[in-house]
Design brief:
heterotrimer, B: alpha/beta, 10-stranded mixed sheet, 11 helices, globular, disordered N terminus, C: alpha/beta, 4-stranded antiparallel sheet, binds adenosine-5'-diphosphate, binds magnesium ion
Chain lengths: 455, 482, 251
C-alpha cells in the first residue's frame, strides 16, 4: 500500500516541478519541442511512474532511484570548466565527428549545428527544431509518443535538448558520429535529454554514444532516443555505458524501421550503479532486419536491467537479440526480451538469446525471454541460460598447459566477444575488447582520465 | 501400439465432445450465492469437525480481501461469484444394502464415461475415487489398499477418520493465502481425494480420481491431498469431464503433494472439461493450484498433464524442491482450439542442494485460441549445483491463433545451471508433402506429426491413459486443419 | 505409362520448365541428366504434385489419366514414388509407424486388407536386408538426425516397401559411397519388371554403370535438349555440359 502513496507523491512532485518550471524549460528549448510538453504531462499524470507491481519494471526499483536528492536545473547552464580540456576520448585512432552533451544540453563550442559531407546535419536537437522544423516535426515524438511508460512522458515533458543527426536520401556517412554524454556538477543532478537520429532511404548512419560521469556526485539520466531508418537505410548504434557507480541511468530507444532497412544496436554496460535500457523496435516494412545486442559486466552493487521489445508488424522480417552478462560480487540484474509477431507478420524469423554467468552466490539474475506469436508461418525461438563457465572447455584449455585463471579469463573473454565482435567501428571494437579484458581481470578500465573511485 | 495408433487415427472422424451428456438425477443443492452462511452450510452438510469450519471461514475472509489475478495472458470475462451454486450432491435414490453400494444410475453415468466402479469390472491395477459435483460417489479397492496401510478415500471421509493427518498437511503446501482461487477453494471446497502412503510402501496400483461436473450452475471445488512417507511410491491419475452447457461453469481445485525422504509421487492429469462450443459459448473456467513439496532428501515429484478441455485454463503445477538431491518434473501437452484460452506452465523452486528439475511443455494452438506457457524456475542461494532444463515448444495450426511463451528464470546461486529453450513453428508443408507422397492423407499426416510432437510427454502417462490422451488430442483438434 | 506434353512451369513468375516433352513406357528406365538449376527437381516435384509451382501449360498423362488434377497422395496410391533429393525430417514420427500408415493406405486404396503387425514386420525385415539399412535407422524418427547417405538409403528402403509402378529418383546417388551406390542400384533393379518404369535423375553417369538406362535425356535450362541411348551419358561425361550449351545455341 505504501508504495502507491509514495508513487503518487513522486508523480506529484514532478507535476509540481513542471508547473513551477515550465517557463524556464521552454525558454531554453525550441517551440517545436515545447508543443509536446503539456500533452506529455497529462500522460504522465495518467500513467504514473512505473512500479515493481507491473510486469515491465518487475525487478527495477525506479522509485528509489528518483527519490535520491538531486538538483533539476532547466536554466542555461554555465559550466565554468572547459570540458574539452578535462575530457578527451582516449580511444586510440578513433576518427569520429565528436559532439558533446553536458548534463543533457548540447555543449556549445560556437556552432550549434554542423553540416557534414553529403548534407548530413548533426548537432543540437533544439537548434535543429528551430532551423529545420519540418524535418524534426516529421519524427519528433512519433515513435516514443505512443509509449505506455510514464518515464518516456516524463522525458518528453522535460527534455530541452539533445543530439540530432540527419542523413538525407542515399547518403552514407563516412566517419562515425560520436556522442559523448557527460554528467558533471557540484551536487547531485538529474538530466533528461532527447536524441533524434534519422536516416532517409538508402542512407547510412554510424553512431557511437559514450556515457561518462566526471564528478563524484549522484547523477540520474532519463534519456530518450528516437531512431528512424527509412527504406533500405542502414543504421549502426553502439552505446558504451561507463558512468561511475553512484549514478543511475535510464535509457529508452525507439527504433522505427521501414522496408528493407537494417538496424543494429549494441549496448555495452561496463560501469554505472543503476542501469535500465529499454529498446523498442518496430519492424514496419517487409524485409527489415534488426539486431539488438547487449553486454553487461557488473560487480559490487551494480544493477543492470535490459528490456527489449521487438514488434514484428510486417511480414518477412528478421530479428535477432543477443544479450550476455557476467555478474560478480553482489551485483544483480534482469533481462526481458519480448518478441511480438503480429497476425499478418507471416514468414517472420525471430531469435533471442540471453546468457548469464554468475560468479558468486550473492549475485542475482532474472531472465524473461518471451514470445507472443499470432502468425503461424514463422520461425521463432529463444534460449536463456544461467550458469558458469563451461567446465569441459576449461579442462580442455588446462590440458594444453594454460593455467586455471588464464583459462577462465580466456573463456570469459570469448564469451563476451560474441557481442563485441558486432561493433562495426574497428578502433572502438578493439578498445572495448581491451576494456572488457581489463574489467574481467579486475583492473581498472575507465576510458578517460577519470578521478572517480567507483565503489 | 501401432494398431492402436492406426485405430485412433481412424476414429478421428467424429469431432464432437463425447462426454457432454447430462445425468438426470435428483440433486441436493443449496441456493446460488456465496457468503459466510454458505460456507457454514457446506461444512454442516458435510458434518465436519470444528477445525474445518474455522479453516474455511479464515480462508473465506481472506478471499474477500483479494483480487482476481490479472497477469495471465487470458481474457477472463467478469465472473459473478454470487451466480454460482457452491454445493450440489447427487441423491442416491435406490435402496442400498450397504454403504459401499452405489445408485445404479450413477454407476451407469460412470460406465458411460469409461470408468466402471464395480471392482471386478474395473481395469486391474487402478483404484478409483469417483467424484460427482460436490461429493465422492465411491472409492474402489479401499480394503485391498488398507491392508498395506495405504489410505485412499474421499477427502470428506479423511476429515472424519484421519483428522490429525488432515490437520497436519492440509494447507501446508498451498496455504489458503496463496492466491485468489486457492482462497476460494479453501473456503468452499466440497470433496476430493485423500491418499496416504506409509513408510516404505510401494503402492501396487495406480490411484485415480475421476471428477465429473453434472449439475447446472454449479461450481466444482475439489481438493486432493497426497502424502508419501519416506521411501514410498505412488502413481496418481486424475480425469475429468462435464456436460455441454451454454453457460460457463467454475472449477477451482487444489492439489497438494508432500513427498518425504526418498519418496516418489507421479501425478498425471488428463483434463477434458467441456471446452465450450465452436463459437466460444459455454465451457468450464478451470482455475487450479497444484503444488508438491519434495520435503525429504532424494524425493521426487513428477507432474504430467494433458490439457485439452476447458474454456479457460489457469494452471501451474509446481514443485518446491526443498530436500537435497530432489527432483521435480513437469511434462505438459496443452491443446487449445476454437475460442479456448490456456495459460499454463509450472514453477520449480530450487532450495535444496543438487536439486534437479526438467520441464517439457508442448503447446498446440488452433482455431482462434490462445495458448501460453508461463513458467518460473527459481534457484535460491543455498541450492548448490541446482540444475534445470526447460524445453517449451509451440505448434500453430492456422493463422488466427496465438502461441506464447513467458518463462521467468531467476538464479541466486553461482553453481546452478539453468537452460531454457523454446521454439514456435507450424507443421511444415514439406513434411506434409513428404507424407502425401507416400500415400498418407493430409489429415492423417497431421495426426502422425502431432503424435510425434507430443510423444515425449504422452510416454510419461500410464499406457491406457496414453492411448486415451492421444485420441483426445486429435479429437480436440478436429476440424482445425485442412 | 507417363506422357508429358509441352509442360511449362514457373515459380514466383519465373519460368523454370519451358516446354518439356517426355514419354516413358512400362518396362523402361530413363535417365535425366543436366547441370545444377536446370529444372530436374522441379520436374520431379511437379510429377509428385508439389503445389508451390504454377503450371502454365501442358498435360501429363499417367496410366492414361490426367495426373496434374490429382492430389499427391492419390498419385502415390496410384503407384508413383518420388525419392526426394533432400528427404524431409519428421521429428517424433517413427519410421515403423510412418511406413505402416503408408502401406495400409495403399492397400486400402487397392481394396486389400491392412497388413497384420507380423506381416508388416516381416516385410520390413526383408526390405531392410535388401537395402542393407540397419534397424537402428528404422527404429528412429523419419530421417531425423540421419546422415546424408542414410537419408538416401532410407528413400530406397521406402521405395522397396511401397513397390511403386513409376519410381522417380531425384539425385539419390549424390553423396553416396560406392557400396551404397550398389545398394541403391540393387533396389532399383529389383523393382524392374515389364510393368514398372523408373526415372533416374542424376548428375553423374557413375550411377548409370549400375542402373543401365534405356534412354538418356539432357535437361538444360528448362528444356530437354538432347535424348539418346545410354551412350549419351558417356558422351556427356566426356564433353561436359559445356558441350550441350554450345549445342543448344544451334537448336
Ligand atoms: N522454391 C523455389 N523458389 C524459387 N526458385 C526456385 C525454387 N525451387 C527451384 N527454384 C529455381 O528453379 C531452378 C531449377 O531448380 P531445380 O529444379 O532444383 O534444379 P536442379 O534439380 O536441376 O538442380 C533453379 O534456378 C532454382 O533456383
Ligand atoms: Mg535437384
Amino acid at each position: 500500500m505504501s508504495t502507491i502513496t509514495e508513487n503518487i507523491s513522486l508523480k506529484e512532485q514532478f507535476l509540481d516541478l513542471y508547473r513551477s518550471s515550465s517557463k524556464e524549460i521552454a525558454v531554453n528549448s525550441a517551440p517545436l519541442m515545447n508543443t509536446h510538453r503539456d500533452k506529455a504531462i497529462i500522460k504522465l499524470e495518467k500513467l504514473g511512474f512505473p512500479s515493481r507491481g507491473g510486469e515491465e519494471y518487475r525487478y527495477a526499483d525506479i522509485e528509489s532511484v528518483f527519490k535520491q536528492d538531486m538538483e533539476k536545473s532547466f536554466g542555461n547552464q554555465k559550466i565554468n570548466i572547459n570540458i574539452r580540456e578535462i575530457f578527451h576520448c582516449d580511444v586510440p585512432d578513433i576518427d569520429t565527428n565528436l559532439f558533446l552533451l553536458v548534463n543533457g544540453m548540447f555543449y556549445n563550442n560556437g556552432q550549434m549545428l554542423k553540416e557534414l559531407p553529403g548534407g548530413i546535419i548533426a548537432g543540437s536537437l533544439s537548434q535543429a527544431a528551430k532551423d529545420y522544423p519540418g524535418l524534426v516535426e516529421k519524427h519528433y515524438d512519433r515513435y516514443a509518443g505512443s509509449s505506455k511508460d510514464g518515464l518516456v512522458a516524463l522525458n518528453t515533458a522535460f527534455a530541452q535538448d539533445g543530439i540530432f543527426i540527419y542523413a538525407p536520401r542515399g547518403v552514407k556517412m563516412e566517419k562515425p558520429v560520436q556522442i559523448v554524454n557527460i554528467m558533471i556538477s557540484e551536487a547531485g543532478l538529474m538530466a533528461q535529454h532527447r536524441n533524434l537520429f534519422v536516416a532517409e532511404e538508402d542512407a547510412e548512419l554510424n553512431i557511437v554514444v559514450c556515457d561518462h560521469s566526471l564528478s563524484a556526485h549522484r547523477f540520474l539520466t532519463n534519456s530518450v532516443n528516437e531512431v528512424f531508418a527509412g527504406e533500405r537505410a542502414q543504421i549502426n548504434l553502439t552505446r558504451i555505458q561507463n558512468e561511475h557507480n553512484g549514478s543511475s541511468q535510464i535509457t529508452h530507444s525507439f527504433n522505427h524501421q521501414e522496408t528493407g532497412s537494417n538496424l543494429a544496436t549494441n549496448i555495452i554496460s561496463l560501469h554505472g550503479g543503476f542501469i535500465r535500457n529499454n529498446v523498442y523496435v518496430k519492424l514496419n516494412g517487409e524485409h527489415a532486419e534488426n539486431h539488438s545486442m547487449g553486454l553487461y559486466l557488473s560487480d559490487k552493487g551494480q544493477y543492470i536491467d535490459n528490456f527489449v521489445f521487438i514488434d514484428h508488424a510486417s511480414p518477412n522480417c528478421f530479428s535477432n537479440q543477443l544479450y550476455k552478462g557476467v555478474m560478480d560480487d553482489y551485483a544483480s540484474g534482469a533481462f526481458t526480451g519480448r518478441i511480438l509477431v503480429r497476425r499478418d507478420a507471416q514468414k517472420t524469423n525471430a531469435y533471442q538469446s540471453n546468457n548469464n554467468i554468475l560468479l558468486t552466490d550473492d549475485a542475482r539474475m532474472h531472465s524473461r525471454p518471451q514470445l507472443e506469436i499470432y502468425a503461424d508461418d514463422v520461425k521463432c525461438s529463444h534460449g536463456s541460460t544461467m550458469g558458469q563457465i563451461d567446465e569441459n572447455a576449461l579442462f580442455y584449455l588446462r590440458s594444453r598447459g594454460i593455467d586455471h585463471r588464464e583459462a577462465r579469463l580466456l573463456l570469459m573473454f570469448a564469451y563476451t566477444h560474441e557481442v563485441i565482435q558486432n561493433i562495426k567501428v574497428k578502433a572502438l571494437r578493439e578498445r572495448i575488447d581491451d576494456l572488457v579484458n581489463k574489467r574481467l581481470r579486475g583492473e581498472l578500465s575507465r576510458c578517460n582520465n577519470c578521478a572517480m573511485q567507483c565503489g | 501400439m501401432q494398431n492402436e495408433q492406426d485405430q485412433i487415427l481412424n476414429e478421428v472422424t467424429t469431432g464432437e465432445y463425447k462426454f457432454g451428456f447430462y445425468t438426470d438425477i435428483e440433486q441436493d443443492s443449496i441456493a446460488k450465492g456465496l457468503n459466510e452462511d454458505v460456507v457454514r452450510m457446506i461444512s454442516a452438510k458435510k458434518k465436519e469437525p470444528e477445525f474445518m469450519l474455522e479453516f474455511r471461514l479464515k480462508a473465506y475472509r481472506h478471499w474477500l480481501t483479494m483480487k482476481m489475478p490479472e497477469w495471465a495472458h487470458l481474457k477472463i470475462p467478469e465472473i459473478d461469484y454470487q451466480d454460482h451454486i457452491y454445493y450440489s450432491a447427487p441423491v442416491q435414490r435406490a435402496k442400498l444394502n450397504s454403504l459401499d453400494e452405489v445408485d445404479p444410475e450413477l454407476l451407469e453415468t460412470f460406465n458411460k464415461l469409461g470408468i466402471p466402479l464395480e471392482e471386478q469390472k474395473h481395469l486391474s491395477g487402478v483404484a478409483v475415487d469417483a467424484v460427482m459435483d460436490s461429493i465422492s460417489v465411491k472409492t474402489t479397492f479401499r480394503e485391498a489398499l488398507a491392508e498395506l496401510g495405504i489410505i485412499f478415500c474421499s477427502f470428506s471421509e479423511a476429515v472424519k477418520e484421519h483428522p490429525d493427518l488432515v490437520k497436519q498437511y492440509m494447507g501446508s503446501v498451498v496455504p489458503y493465502t496463496d492466491n485468489y482461487f486457492a482462497a476460494l477453494n479453501s473456503a468452499v471446497f466440497s470433496d476430493g481425494s485423500f491418499c496416504f502412503i506409509p513408510k516404505g510402501v510401494r503402492c501396487p496400483m495406480e490411484l485415480s480420481t475421476y471428477f465429473r461436473i453434472n449439475a447446472a450452475n454449479t461450481g466444482q471445488f475439489e481438493r486432493t491431498l497426497i502424502v508419501a512417507e519416506d521411501k514410498s511410491y505412488v502413481s496418481y491419475l486424475e480425469g475429468c469431464t462435464a456436460p455441454m452447457r451454454d453457460e460457463n461453469q467454475l472449477h477451482a481445485a487444489i492439489v497438494e503433494i508432500v513427498a518425504m525422504e526418498s519418496a516418489e509421487v507421479k501425478y498425471a492429469t488428463v483434463q477434458n472439461w467441456y471446452p465450450g462450443n465452436k463459437e466460444g459459448k459455454g465451457g468450464i473456467y478451470n482455475f487450479v493450484t497444484k503444488r508438491g513439496i519434495c520435503k525429504g532428501d532424494n524425493s521426487k515429484i513428477s507432474w504430467t498433464q494433458v490439457e485439452t478441455g476447458s474454456a479457460i485454463t489457469w494452471k501451474y503445477p509446481s514443485c518446491i524442491l526443498k530436500g537435497h538431491n530432489t527432483t521435480g518434473e513437469f511434462y505438459s501437452v496443452a491443446v487449445t482450439n476454437n475460442h479456448q484460452q490456456a495459460d499454463t506452465g509450472t514453477k520449480m523452486i530450487h532450495i535444496g542442494k543438487n536439486s534437479r528439475s526438467i520441464i517439457v511443455s508442448k503447446g498446440i494452438s488452433a482455431g482462434v485460441s490462445n495458448n501460453s506457457y508461463r513458467g518460473q524456475v527459481k534457484v535460491l542461494r543455498g541450492a548448490d549445483n541446482a540444475r534445470n532444463f526447460s524445453q517449451c515448444d509451440s505448434l500453430l495450426l492456422g493463422d488466427k491463433c496465438g502461441a506464447h511463451t513467458f518463462p521467468y528464470i531467476e538464479s541466486a546461486n553461482h553453481s546452478a545451471i539453468i537452460e531454457h529453450e523454446a521454439t514456435t513453428s507450424k507443421i511444415g508443408e514439406d513434411q506434409i508433402f513428404y507424407c502425401n507422397q507416400r500415400g498418407i492423407s493430409t489429415e492423417d499426416a497431421i495426426g502422425l506429426i502431432i503424435n510425434g510432437y507430443t510423444k515425449e510427454v504422452l510416454n510419461k502417462l500410464p499406457m491406457e491413459f496414453a492411448v486415451e490422451a492421444q485420441k483426445l488430442l486429435l479429437i480436440s483438434l478436429e476440424g482445425s486443419v485442412g | 505409362m507417363l506422357v508429358i506434353k509441352d509442360l511449362r512451369v514457373s515459380i514466383e513468375g519465373e519460368e523454370i520448365l519451358k516446354g518439356i516433352n517426355l514419354e516413358v513406357n512400362a518396362g523402361e528406365v530413363h535417365a535425366i541428366m543436366g547441370p545444377n538449376g536446370s529444372g530436374k527437381s522441379t520436374l520431379a516435384a511437379i510429377l509428385a504434385g508439389r503445389d508451390i509451382y504454377e503450371i502454365n501449360s501442358g498435360t501429363v498423362l499417367y496410366k492414361g489419366e490426367d495426373l496434374l488434377d490429382k492430389s499427391p497422395e492419390e498419385r502415390a496410391k496410384d503407384g508413383l514414388f518420388l525419392g526426394f533429393q533432400y528427404p524431409i525430417e519428421i521429428p517424433g514420427v517413427s519410421m515403423v509407424n510412418f511406413m505402416k500408415t503408408a502401406i495400409n493406405e495403399m492397400r486400402k486404396h487397392r481394396g486389400e486388407e491392412p497388413l497384420s503387425a507380423s506381416e508388416f514386420l516381416k516385410k520390413m525385415r526383408e526390405k531392410k536386408d535388401l537395402v542393407e539399412i540397419s534397424s537402428s535407422l528404422t527404429n528412429r524418427s523419419v530421417n531425423e538426425g540421419f546422415s546424408g547417405g542414410e537419408k538416401k538409403k532410407n528413400e530406397i528402403f521406402q521405395m522397396a516397401m511401397l513397390e511403386p509402378q513409376l519410381a522417380i529418383l531425384d539425385e539419390t546417388d549424390s553423396g553416396l559411397d560406392i557400396d551404397a551406390l550398389r545398394i541403391v542400384a540393387r533396389g532399383v533393379n529389383n523393382l524392374k519388371s515389364p510393368h514398372n518404369a523408373t526415372i533416374v535423375i542424376t548428375h553423374y553417369q557413375r550411377l548409370l554403370e549400375y542402373i543401365v538406362p534405356d534412354f538418356v535425356h539432357v535437361l538444360f535450362n528448362g528444356r530437354i535438349v538432347k535424348s539418346g541411348g545410354k551412350e549419351l551419358a558417356l558422351l556427356l561425361e566426356e564433353k561436359g555440359y559445356e558441350w550441350v550449351r554450345s549445342e543448344e545455341v544451334n537448336l
